[in-house]
Amino acid sequence: MRCDRPVTARTRPTCGVSCAGLCTDGGIAAVLAADRALLYWRAMRGLGDSGLAEQVVQETLLRAWRSCDRFDSGKGSVRAWLLRIERNVLIDLARARAARPGEVGWDDSRETAESRCVSPDFADSLCDGLLVADLLAALPGPQRAAVVEVVMRDRAYQEVADDLGVPVGTVKTRVHYALRSLRKLPRGA
Question: What pLDDT does residue 6 have?
Answer without folding.
Answer: 47
